[in-house]
Amino acid sequence: MEKLIHQFELGLFFWQVLIFVGLIFLLKKFAWKPILDAVNDREEGIKNALLSAENARKEMQNLQADNQRILQEARMERDNMLKDAREIKEKMIADSKEEAQAQGLKMIEQAKAAIESEKNAAMAELKLQVSTLSLSIAEKLLKDELSNKEAQTKLVEKMLGDVKLN
Amino acid sequence: MVISNRPLRFIIATLVACLPLMTFANPEVDSVKVHTEVAHETTEQSHEGAHAEPTDVKSKIKAFIGHHVLDSHDFTFFSDEVEGKHYGFSLPVILWDNGLQLFSSSEFEHGEAVAESNGNFYAINHHDGKIYKTDASGKIIEDEKTGFPENERPLDFSITKTVLSIFIAAILMVLIFAGLAKTYSKNGGIASGAGRIFEPVVLFIRDEIAIPNIGEKHYKRYMSYLLTIFFFVLFLNIFGLMPFGINVTGNLTITFALAIMTFLITNLTANKNYWGHIFWMPGVPKVMRIVLAPIELLGVIIKPFSLMIRLYANIFAGHIVLMSIIGLMFIFKSWLGSSLSFALSFALSILEILVAFLQAYIFTLLSALYFGSAVEEHHHEEAH
Questions:
Q1: In this structure, are B365 and B244 located in the same domain?
Q2: What is the DSSP letter of B108?
Q3: Looking at residue B31, what is its pLDDT?
Q4: Dihedrals φ, ψ of B123, to 5°?
Q5: Which UniProt keywords apply (chain B) (predicted)?
C-alpha cells in the first residue's frame, strides 16, 4: 500500500486531469455532439422513412379497398341497369304487342265497317241499277206490248196472276 | 437477437469485472512484491557499490521490467548496453522549486548525472525514476526500513514519457473524432473515411452502456465523458501493447485521476434519491438505517477505488507478465525454451489486446452504472 501511495505523482496527476478535462470539452464540442446529433438525425430519418412507408402502404390498401368497393358498386349498377333495360324491353314489347293488337282490332273494326258501308253502297247502287234496268226493260216491253193490244192484255193478266201467286 | 445476447454478455462482463478483484486482491501485493524484491536487491547492490548496475541476466531483466512500468523523464525506445547508448529523445523537465526550473532531461544523462539549474542540484533515483533534490555529488539518502529516499522532492511538472503519451493519445483522438464528425455533414449524414470504424463503437457505448445503465432521460449528460474515457483508456491500453514501451494506464496516478473524475461526476450530479439511499435507507428499520449509513458511505468511496485498482492492476500485471515471458527468452537461450516462451508471449499479447478492450469497456460500463445509480428515480416510494 505504501508502495502504491509512493507511486502517486502530483505533476503527472495535474497533467492528466488538465489534458483529460480539456479533451472531454474539446471532443464534446468538435466530435461527440456532431457525431451523436448526426447519428440521431439519421436514426430519426430512418424511423420517419419507415413510418411514411408504412403509411403509404396503408393508404395503398385503403385505395385498393376503395377501388374494390367502387368496382363492386359499378358492377352492381351495371347489373341493375341491365335488369332495368330488360324490364323496359319486356314492357315495351308487351306494350307494343298490346297496342298492335288494339290497333289491329281497331283496323279490323274499321275495315269491317268500311266493308259494310261499301257493301251497302254497292247494294244501293245495284238496286238503283236494277231498278233503272228494269224500268228501261219495262219501258221497252211496254212500248212493244202497247203496240199489240191483245198480248198486252194477256200479259197484264199473267202478271196479275203471278203477283197473286207471290 | 440483441435481447437474447444481452444477459449473457452482462454476466460475462460482470464475471470478468469481478475477476481482477479476486485475482488481484492478493496477487496485487504479489506483483508489487516482485517489484519490492527488485528494489531491495538493487538497494542492496547500490549499498554495496555506488550505482552498481545488476550484472546477471535475470536481475537485469527484473530491473528493466521494474523501470518499464514506471514513468520516465526521457523517451527511450531501446538502448545499447554494450556501448551505453540510448536511442530515443529527451523531454523537458519542469520543476517548481523556489521558482520555475526548466531544463532538458538530457542533463540527467539517463539518470547517470546530476542536473544543475539555478544553483539547485537534482538527481533521478534509480528505483522510482523520480527527481530528488540533492547536492553536487548527487547523493540520495534512503530510509533504512522502507527503502524510499529521504531527500526533498521538488514539485515535478515535467513532460514525462507518460504525459507525452497522453498528449499524443489526446491529439490522435481529437483528429480521429473531429474528422469523423466532419464527414457526416459532407456525406449526407453518413460517416465516411477511416474514422467510420469507430461509429459502431460510439453507438455501442450509447446503446449498450449509457442507455441501459443510466436511462433514456439522463444519459445524454454523461455521453461525452463516457465516450472520452472509453476511447482514452482503450487508446492508451493499445499504446501500451505497441513496441514503444509505454505504460500509461498501468500507472496508478492515471487511474486515480480517471477514477476521481468518475467519483466527482457521480456525486456532483447525484439527486436527492441517491443521498437518501446512502444516509437514510428507505424501507429498513430505523436502527438499521444508522448502521447502514457508514457502510453505504464507504461504498461511495470503494466504488471509484475499485475502478482505479482494477484498471491499474490489470494493465500493470499484464505488462509485468508479458515482459517477464519475453525476458525468459533471454534466460533460456535455447531453441526449445526460447521458442516456447515466444509462443507464450505471442498468445499472451493477444490476450492483452482482449484485456485492453475489456478494461476500457468495464471502466466505462461501471462508470455508467455509478452515474445511473446517482440519477436513478425511484418509482416505488409508495411501497416503502
A1: yes
A2: G
A3: 41
A4: -140, 155
A5: ATP synthesis, Cell membrane, CF(0), Hydrogen ion transport, Ion transport, Membrane, Signal, Transmembrane, Transmembrane helix, Transport
Residue A38, domain member (yes or no): no
Closest-CA distance of chain B to residue A8, Å? 5
Within-domain flag for A123: yes
User: Nearest C-alpha of chain B: how many angstroms from A51?
Assistant: 19
Nearest CB among A11, A19, A35 relative to B167 is that of A19
Reduce the DSSP state of residue B123 to 3 states and report it. strand
Q: Is the same domain home to B212 and B322?
A: yes
Q: Say whether B185 and A41 touch across the interface (CB within 8 A).
A: no
Residue B93: beta bridge partners? B103
Which pLDDT score is estimated for B89? 84
Domains in chain B: how many in total? Answer: 2
Same structural domain, B149 and B217: no
Residue stretches of chain A with pLDDT short of 70: 145, 164-166
Give the one of A14, A28, A35 whose C-beta lies nearest to B184's C-beta. Answer: A35
Query: Nearest CA of chain B to the CA of A31: how many Å?
Result: 5
- In a shared domain, residues B149 and B213: no
Together in a domain, B121 and B269: no
B360 within a domain of the structure (yes/no): yes
- Residues B209, B90 share a domain: no
Q: Give me the amino acid identity at B256.
A: F
Beta-carbon pairs below 8 A across chains A and B: 127
pLDDT of A68 reads 95
β partners of residue B86: B79
Cell of B56: 546477471
* Claim to verify: residue B140 and residue B221 sit in the same structural domain: no
For residue B345, give the nearest of B332, B359, B328 by alpha carbon.
B328
Give the pLDDT of residue A140: 83
Question: In this complex, is the C-beta atom of A111 within 8 Å of any C-beta atom belonging to chain B?
Answer: no
B372, B317: one domain: yes
* Alpha carbon distances (Å) from B374 to B147, B210, B265: 42, 13, 9
Q: Is residue B266 situated within a structural domain?
A: yes
- For residue A41, being part of any structural domain is answered with no
The low-confidence residues of chain B, meaning pLDDT below 50, are 1-4, 20-52, 382-384
Report ipTM for this prediction: 0.78
Contact B257 A17 (CB under 8 A): yes
pLDDT at B51: 43
Which structural domain, as residue segments, surrounds residue A118? Answer: 50-165
The total number of structural domains that make up chain A: 1
Evaluate whether residue B136 is within a structural domain: yes
pLDDT, residue B82, reads 76
Give the closest of A10, A13, A35 to B181, CB-based: A35
Confirm whether B96 is domain-assigned: yes
Q: Are B37 and B327 in contact (CB under 8 A)?
A: no
Domain extent at residue B346: 203-383
The pLDDT of residue B17 is 60
Give the model's pLDDT for residue B76.
81
Residue B80 sits at φ, ψ, to 5 deg, of: -95, 115
How high is the pLDDT of residue A18?
Answer: 93
Residue B133 carries which DSSP code? Answer: E
In a domain? residue A139: yes
As a whole number of Å, the end-to-end CA separation of chain A is: 181
